[in-house]
Structures are given as structure tokens and as C-alpha cells.
Amino acid sequence: MLAPSEHIPAIQSAASLLSTGDVYSGAYNFMSSVSAGVDPRTGSFSASISLPTGAANDLRGPISQLRLGYSPLMTEDQGFGLGWMLGTTSWDGASQQLQLNSGERFRGEIVGQGMRFPDVRLPVVT
């Protein structure tokens, strides 16, 4: 039987394990897929994680870039946790807003068979 001080590793934090070089992982090479920050205008925190791309239609395309994003203004749980949402382009008929996969939102107006976005100044919506 071993004495308690013999051959029992001390518990270390993850940061100290990484700094000693005892643990190696290639996962930290891909941190460019994660971005986060505080908007200095509003003081709100937001984050986004790029997910692997997928080609639809039996790999013939289109290729879609998916992004998981966090916003404290998001008050519902869409299956990823409170405040997290999958970055897809969607139309909310109740508020008449188009949300692009980039996170941008635009209020739209239905005009005949088409739509008009009066707040769009640059060609992001076509």
C-alpha cells in the first residue's frame, strides 16, 4: 500500500497543466473559429462559433456556412442554451424582420409580390 504522498499526482488547474507542457492538444490551434467581445457602444457581450461547413444536394452545393452565436438580447432557448442561436437566414413574419446568417437584422415591407428593405444602405440583401 502506498503512503498518501507517494505517486499520487497533485490536482492542477487546466491552465497550469497546459503551461507545464504535460498536456498537449491540437484543439487550441483552431481558436480562430471562435470570436467574442463586448460592444463598446452598448456594453453587451456577444460570441460566435463557426461550425464545419456542409455541402447540400449530395455534395453538389450550395455550401452553407453555419455559425452558432450568443446574444444576451436573445430571450429564448432554441436548443443550444439561453441566448444561443444557429446563424441561419430567417424571416420573422410577426415582426416583419429578416435576420441574415451574419446576425444582421432588417425590417422588411411586403410590396406586391416582392419585399422592400428601407433601412438597407448597402447591397447585403438582394
- Summarize model confidence as the mean pLDDT: 76
Estimated radius of gyration:
23 Å
What number of structural domains do the residues give?
2
Low-confidence stretches: none
Largest sheet: 4 strands, antiparallel
Spatial strand order of the main sheet: 1-2-5-6
- Strand content bin: 25-35%
- Name the helicity range: under 10%
The count of DSSP E runs of length 2 or more, i.e. the number of strands, is: 11
Structural class: mainly beta
Overall, the morphology is extended
Order of helices and strands: HEEEHEEEEEEEE
Give the terminus-to-terminus CA distance. Answer: 74 Å
Structure annotation, total helices: 2
Keywords for this structure?
126 residues; mainly beta; 4-stranded antiparallel sheet; 3-stranded antiparallel sheet; 2 helices; 9% helix; extended
Overview of the molecule:
- The protein is mostly beta strands and 126 residues long.
- It folds into two domains: 29-87, no CATH class; 89-126, no CATH class.
- The protein contains two helices and eleven strands, in the order H-E-E-E-H-E-E-E-E-E-E-E-E.
- The strands form four sheets. Strands 1-2-5-6 form a four-stranded antiparallel sheet, with no helix packed on it.
- Strand 1 and strand 2 (45-50) form a beta hairpin.
- The termini are far apart.
- The relative contact order is 0.09.
